[in-house]
Amino acid sequence: MLRIEKLNQYYGGSHILRDLSFEIPAGKVTALLGRNGVGKTTLLRVLMGLVPTRTGEVKFFDKDITHAKPYERAQAGIGYVPQGREIFPRLTVEENLRMGFATLPRGARVPERIYEMFPVLRQMLGRRGGDLSGGQQQQLAIARALASDPKVLLLDEVAGGLTEHECAALVALIKDIRQAGISIIWIEHIVHALLAVVDRLAVLHGGAILAQGAPQAVIRAPAVAEIYMGIEADA
After folding, report:
1. pLDDT tens digits for 89-129?
2. CA angle 140, 200, 55 (to 5 degrees)
3. Looking at the DSSP assignment, which residues form a beta bridge with residue 205?
4. I need a labelling partner for 197 at 20 to 30 A (CA). Which of 25, 31, 74, 219 fits?
């Protein structure tokens, strides 16, 4: 569904992503794991078109979107929840949700399914985003991305700063999103949250995919264990 071929990306003189080839299957949750600075967030920003692709190709349902603008990718069906949520704190919950309508026809309304998935947001439509709790803000950020009915959702460390209860609620939400047929690419440092719902795991190291496949097989792979000591214990 979403395929990256021989992707190279740089920051200044640093070669961040190196001939990266990676495919995201439809209807699955694919987690991307790696230490800080290996290019995980850069990859998501490239997929969303926020960072221009230096070399390589990005294909979505076999259509080349390598040079497509962010709004064109959103129109095609790619949703994005950035690290830090980036909601608008002075706008109401409803106004924040409407910000996800940029690619929809004029006069579009919040789909009822959004309120079914996020009932707390229906109760807080008139409240400012900045007045919500961390978990509620995270729900708002994800709901805003889902408002445009994406086919694939990019999640960048959405469990960061959440309580154990909020993290469990997030995992349940991810399962609901997957059941709705939406593919997910999820970057996260909280490994146990990933393993509770992820279908495939890929480990990024040195700007390339070190290992990928079934989660338990990947975290037990010798090459992964050697570099990411303690990951299995955390799981």
Report:
1. 999 999 999 888 877 777 778 888 899 999 999 999 999 99
2. 85
3. 208
4. 74
Tokens, residue 148: 């445009």
Q: What is the bridge-based pairing of β-strands 29-33 and 152-156? A: unpaired
Is residue 98 within 8 Å of residue 111, measured between CB atoms?
no
Q: Quick one: average pLDDT of 60-73?
A: 95
Residue 129 gets which letter from DSSP?
G
**Residue 183 DSSP SS3:** strand
> What average pLDDT does range 1-15 have in this prediction?
91
The amino acid occupying position 33 is L
Number of other residues whose CB lies within 10 A of the CB of residue 233:
7
Q: Where does residue 23 fall: left (phi above 0), alpha (psi -120 to 50 degrees), or beta otherwise?
A: beta
Q: Enter the tokens of residue 61.
A: 């349902």
Kindly report the pTM of this predicted structure: 0.90
Residue 235 reports pLDDT greater than 60 = no
**Which domains, from first to last, does the chain contain?**
2-234 (3.40.50.300)
Residues comprising the chain, all counted: 235
Classify burial at 199, counting beta carbons within 10 Å of its beta carbon; exposed 0-12, middle 13-18, buried 19 or more: middle
pLDDT of 233 reads: 37
> Which residue do the tokens 């146990």 mark?
192
Residue partners of 73: CB distance under 8 A and separation at least 6:
47, 48, 49, 60, 65
- Three-state DSSP state, 103: coil
Tokens 């995919």 -> residue: 209
63 forms bridges with which residues in the sheet? Answer: 60
